[in-house]
Amino acid sequence: MKRSNKTHWETIYATRDSDQLSWTQDIPNTSLDFIHSFHLLKTAKIIDIGGGDSKLVDYLLNEGYEDITVLDISETALAKAKSRLGENSKKIKWIVSDIIEFVPTEQYEVWHDRATFHFLTNSAHIKKYLDTARRAVIGYLTIGTFSQNGPTKCSGLEIKQYSETTLQNQLKEGFSKIRCVNQNHITPFKMSQNFLFCSFKIRV
């Protein structure tokens, strides 16, 4: 079950600045729109899966959310985020872990994942991710993946493209779809990448 991607991602984050990473966003509007749609209390527990040095955590803090966790396989990525946030980094729970090895000790009202799930191309890894999410989520899950019109690789790694139907089928056990949108992400290199974002609610 163990993967060998940690060294890959540590190297990526150690050798490239944020403006050299295709997934960089100045304002994560789509992610924020989905989180806002859940009408959460500011005390809601939110986890950002594969958050790296994303600025989503900055915006959530600015909006007053009080219980945020950021998980990433790369310790270097999280160190960059902590440095950017300064004193505010102490308000965040930071977890260095491969998602398929993550054992949650809390449950979350929101599980947010932009561009981690689509790196799981092995059926056993996908199952492990979904099993973990079903245990950890008590509210909502939002996932952004490359769509069928998006890239087939990212940072030299193969990814799995999704349509609304295939993503819904992956999550049909335990989750009910709320809505899906397509988004063209413009990279720092001015290239367009088509993403599929969907939100789900846990079935109890």
Task: Report on the architecture of this protein.
The structure is a single chain. The protein has 204 residues and is α/β, with parallel strands linked by helices. It has six helices and nine strands, in the order ααβαβαββαβββαββ. The chain has one domain: Vaccinia Virus protein VP39 (Rossmann fold, 3-Layer(aba) Sandwich), CATH 3.40.50. It is 28% helix and 29% strand. A seven-stranded mixed β-sheet has the order 3-2-1-4-5-9-8, sandwiched between helices. A two-stranded antiparallel ribbon has the order 6-7. The protein is globular and about 40 Å long. The mean pLDDT is 89.
Concise synopsis of the structure shown:
This protein is α/β, with parallel strands linked by helices and 204 residues long.
How would you summarize the topology of this molecule?
Blueprint: H1 6-15, H2 29-37, E1 45-49, H3 56-62, E2 67-72, H4 75-85, E3 92-96, E4 108-114, H5 123-136, E5 137-146, E6 153-154, E7 157-158, H6 164-170, E8 175-186, E9 192-202
Parallel strand pairs: 1-2, 1-4, 2-3, 4-5
Antiparallel strand pairs: 5-9, 6-7, 8-9
Throw out a few tags for this protein:
6 helices; alpha/beta; about 30% strand; Rossmann fold; 7-stranded mixed β-sheet; about 200 residues; about 30% helix
Looking at CATH, the homologous superfamily is Vaccinia Virus protein VP39
Give me the CATH architecture, please: 3-Layer(aba) Sandwich
In whole angstroms, the N-to-C terminal distance is 29 Å
Helix percent reads: 25-40%
Rounded to an integer, what's the Rg over CA atoms? Answer: 16 Å
Tally of discrete structural domains: 1
Mean pLDDT: 89
CATH third-level topology: Rossmann fold
Number of continuous helical runs: 6
- Ranges where pLDDT stays below 50 over 5 or more residues in a row are none
Note the main sheet: 7 strands, mixed
- What global shape is seen? globular
- Strand proportion, as a percent range, falls in 25-35%
| CATH class categorisation | Alpha Beta
* DSSP strand tally: 9
Based on helices, strands and strand pairing, what is the structural class? alpha/beta
SSE sequence, one letter per element? HHEHEHEEHEEEHEE
